[in-house]
């Protein structure tokens, strides 16, 4: 049964109730902490470095290279050499130069597609999630229908109507691409709008605009950023894929996709024409994915496996 | 007896087929604490949120400071209402925006209502509020995740106080906290009540939590209030079997009596439409049919 323990057996060792509830660490904002966690992720840092190098090369290629992307040097399918680091192609153009001009096109397509997704997706998703009810149902059904349309069909139709070039490719990528962003934003909005801090803001008398700017956007920003970072590589890949089908940007413009596709035809005689753009596509896609994953882990450390 | 500050008459809140709150009535008097107790999912939060206008009510009438507060209201009336009635939330993690500092969280109310002349006055108000809930002025620049559960709940309390309300709904403000911190937060709430003449609707899921703070207690079950009376009556002379069951679930501080404590199981009896509220004693109400109440009372 229960037994009384004599008081003398207890020894008060001290301890301060108030102090146990004190704070130790220095104050860090949410984004600073995200940045610190991101910095500990080696793969993500490698990704960032790769992206910075690719971007610098793409921007400053006219400085690094004595040639232009359409200049014909008279050496056809020449192997890599001191003059032409990545060799030349069948028209005698410098592959090194063209690969960085191609980076401009590929990155432009990827980033533009991501920005369009961002604008449409955020608007669509947040209205859908905020208004809810019937409006939400209808907006989400429209999105569902769009994802069911194969983009290949869209590109082919657009190419019939429009001149081949960047525009139809970007339209084709965006027409279904924004749906993913809209779904993610809607999910975020639905979960955030019922959080107790939003209810608290409403009992304080907050307007819808206040709730959107102070609560919804700051809290959904992370997910939006991650989605955007992961959209870019998939757009770059899709563009390359379209190029292989002959639906890429027209000559003498070059993207990594069209270069790899052309190079593929000369794989026996001039493999460098395929290898260099293909490697760049791969490491750039890898880099974006590494950064996106790193960002996601840094934003929500609990999700990390 | 003090004035009635809040009157709830036949409040119903249905979500589709779920009758979260199904026709409850009670009054809250100025300066008192009414404890609202019941198991998880019985409709306590829904009651609180309906009263504070977070939900449009399905049916019933809520009168606050003599005015019917539901239905369409002008901007001015709403502002006045927001200033008079505030809420403290259950989850100290979900109730603070992780992207805001403690200062921003506390200042949200007066930012919305433009209740200061300059930055200096705003800072001063934040500092005073932090101190009044037992935190330091220096905490204003820290983010929510840097505080412990108890400290977060204090920030939530400071936010609720920021508009200087007269009525506060505390929705299980201590349930998520460590036992050692619970008493501190209850004491803070009592002290604030005394200093500011606050009225509380204090929600909890078991009777032990409301014991020290409530003047009167309402016991809720499945969307209905089954018993309502002074804290003393509810603890010493419970009538409804559900209240008795809840009381039997409270652990006793004395180990000898705790060892012999047995839980009284509660078997739900379906009540028909003829069930109603009976005043078994002045101010002590029990919900049931005539026969049931008679049987419980004589037991
Ligand atoms: N917005 C809503 N939509 C639909 N059903 C809801 C909604 N809010 C609450 N409910 C339902 O109403 C019932 C009462 O919920 P409520 O949150 O009021 O319970 P509670 O007593 O506060 O419980 P707890 O102690 O777990 O907080 C539950 O069955 C719940 O699922
Ligand atoms: Mg609740």
How would you characterize this protein structure?
- The complex is a heterodimer of chains A (305) and B (299).
- Chain A is mostly helical and 305 residues long.
- Chain A has one domain (43-57, 88-303): Orthogonal Bundle (MetI-like fold), CATH 1.10.3720.
- Chain A is 70% helix and 0% strand.
- Chain A is built from eleven helices and no strands.
- Chain A has helices at 17-20, 30-39, 42-64, 95-131, 133-148, 151-161, 166-193, 196-203, 208-244, 256-265, 272-299.
- In chain A, helix 9 runs antiparallel to helix 11.
- Residues 17-25 of chain A have low confidence and may be disordered.
- With 299 residues, chain B is of the alpha/beta class.
- Chain B has one domain: P-loop containing nucleotide triphosphate hydrolases (Rossmann fold).
- Chain B contains eleven helices and twelve strands.
- Chain B has helices at 44-51, 75-84, 102-113, 119-132, 149-161, 179-196, 207-210, 231-236, 241-248, 255-260, 290-298; strands at 4-15, 18-29, 33-37, 59-64, 67-68, 85-88, 167-171, 199-204, 216-221, 224-230, 276-281, 284-288.
- In chain B, the strands form two sheets. In chain B, strands 6-7-8-3-9-10-12-11 form an eight-stranded mixed beta sheet.
- In chain B, strand 11 (276-281) and strand 12 form a beta hairpin.
- The A-B interface holds A 1-2, 21, 23, 25, 27-30, 195-197, 199-207, 210, 214-215, 218-219 and B 49, 52-54, 78-79, 82-83, 85-87, 89-91, 94-100, 105, 108-109, 112-113, 139, 141-143, 145-148, 150-151, 156, 159, 162-163, 181, 255-256, 259.
- The complex binds adenosine-5'-triphosphate and magnesium ion.
